[in-house]
Request: fold
Amino acid sequence: MGKGITGGHAMSLWDGIWGGLAAATSWPACALMLLTIPIGLVIGIIPGMGGNMGLALLIPFTFGMQPIAGFAFLLGMHAVVHTGGSIPAILFDTPGTGPNAATCIEGFPMAQKGEAGRALGAALTSSMLGGVLGAIFMAMIIPVLRPLVLAFGPPEFFMMAIMGLAFISLMAGESLLKGLMAGGMGLIISFVGMDPQTGVVRFSYGMLGLMDGINIVTVVVGLFALAEVIDMGVKGGAIAHTESADVKGTGVMQGIKDCFTYWWLLLRCSIIGNIIGIIPGLGGDAAAFICYGHAVQTTKQRDQFGKGCVEGVIATDSAHNSKEGGALIPTLAFGVPGSSGMAILLGAFMILGVSPGREMFTKHLDLVFSMVWVLVFANIIAVMLCLPFAGKMAKITFIRTSVMIPFILVCGILGSYLTTSKIGDILITVIFGGVGYAMKKFDYARGPLILGIVLGRIAENALHVSLNLYGLMFLFRPITLILLIITLATVLFPVYKDRVKKRTARGGIG
Amino acid sequence: MKAQKLIGLALAVLMIGAFAATVQAAPTQEDLDFYKGKLVTYIVATKPGGGYDAYGRLVGRYLQKYLPGSTVIIKNVPGAGHIIGANEVYLSKPDGLIIGTFNTGLIYSQIVGQEGIKFDLTKYSWIGKASSETRVILAGNKTTYQTIKDVLDSKDEIKVPASGVGSQDFNETSVLAIALPAKFKPIPGYGGNEGEMAILRGECQVIIGSYTGLMGFIKSKECRVLLQFGSEHKIPALANVPHISELSVSPRGKSLINLVNNIDMIGRLTAAPPGVPAGRLEVLRDAYKKAVTDPEILQEGAKLGLEFDPAYGDDVQKMIREAINQPEDNLKLLKEIIKIE
Reply:
């Protein structure tokens, strides 16, 4: 199966790598890339503007460009959008793009602890390393690309979504029951809108705006940013609850160091993100959240999660950039785009005269690698551009809240509106602002709710398709079964451990 | 009595329409000036990517060129087989600043009275259509289907991915299953380009969809194109692929195929909500006509594989009305085969 893609010669792979490097650094490709990287960062930083919008804006400029110059121009921008998107997520609890929603969960609490610099350092560095590692991993799996991509179908999507949902039990914080309630609420919210299986509209109460379902950014801005605004209004002070920005171990350098301390987590999340990017069907939002869940699952300091844990930031931010490299694979290999951004890129590739297919990985391997190199360079350059300013940006969190509240409000509402272009969604954001404040006040973890929204719809749809295709037998496909076992272990192991702990405690008393 | 009333009403509408058509002059300067500095939202009823989006973005850019001083933005409003987008266009303020493009297959949905539909296709302010949509039946390389005959002779159920119940691919698959006949079973739940992945994995065997939307997949040589339909004639890129008119089918089948083809003829349409002021509608129609006949758009379209076979305003209105008013027996059959739970 796979041999048609590599052409079978290691030599051609090396030729491709060096040919790609030469192409990516050739004139004018490198200059065009340098031009669009800042554009990508800015698009990422502005909440509500995503890579898709950036691509749609830039594509007309590519007419008449040579293919390599065109890729460098578009990919340079597209590769770094999420890097920029983490900055408002950490500073204002407002995600710049959908996948950055996961960054809010730990990033902003870090800022509140006075560790905004550390969070930014960790986010930027893990974005960069994730992007680079994702590109390397993508190059490495080219020989086994086909069987890997095709191993995941609707039954596997369903189990992956269920596995992700099982993380709710880990993200619940102090009360499992409250976490499950929040997760269940997320699931119900994910069912709002038109059901593709029946054509029936659910939970819309006749409101046209709700037929589309509820967008994740709309909810996150309310649940996090607005809720924090209310909280700040009540409490006063600054975002950061500590006095000074210069406490040792809270700065940008510490964040960079953290990425190397947790290098193993960073590597795993880069690979998970990359694989989710390679498989069309799960989507970019899912990648960051599944990696976050994975971090909670594997950490040694679970009680720190939700309170500003740097591991959470590293996990989410290494995932969202590595995913972009992965999404190139099905686009180039099969002409099947792995994300909506990639669908736009595929259109652009065809404008530039490049046809997707197996030949991309035989005759045009240098083209593929020129894209890999662009991803690598763009990720590095973008972070080099941002890091020097990270310390200054972190100071924002020490400004009085009376100055910051209007700014965060505008930033959040604008982001909510720009994401869906629906006035009604501002109302939804405001409602979730109230919900978020109540959840914060009464100690309900907000992560599970978001996870429920992101994964609920994927799980439901994949379940229907799987049942339609295979009946109940879908549960017994090998990968599905393995995922099922992992899921059960995730859910049952903490319960078991809890039992044991209680029993020994009781034994101690008795 | 009721029928007579309806016919009378229809005649009246037609006459007013014909009258309006003769009276309509070139758009006035006042109406043209209205668009200066305005934002025109072009609703595309799909996710980014795919044929509708490609046409929307291309036509949108040229519309902007011919609406001086305006900015045309694309807004993707996906979901429920284009119904959400079409509803949004229909219920928008008819100020001439919101237009949209959606699936002509909604004609099926309206005929069978699908839930969730808040529009009446005959009442939109029609601006034009960009192409006759060439549709293809293709089979994955993993299947044994080499020709369309293999598909028709198949004793096994043939799974066909569809985006949702009531979507054009779902309905067309159901109708063709009876018309050809073939053992197609539509599987709803494949959004965007996920249907192509289903073919690659082998869980579905055949895709029925638009040529432009599937072009990347076809170019990657992961499938065999077995049949083309929709447009009246073969397109150059598929010169070796048989056309549906070459198949021998029953009279009933022929009548259903005609329905399918009629609907696909009105491809890549653009409409505004009902009740757009006549002058502004004329500006939009005029700009649209100039946009889709611009030599540069044809050049760009050729590169993207987007064909142009435009029709405008009242002509499109007439075509839609003809497609909706199906003979009684076709209507009955359609309602039977397009089951909405």
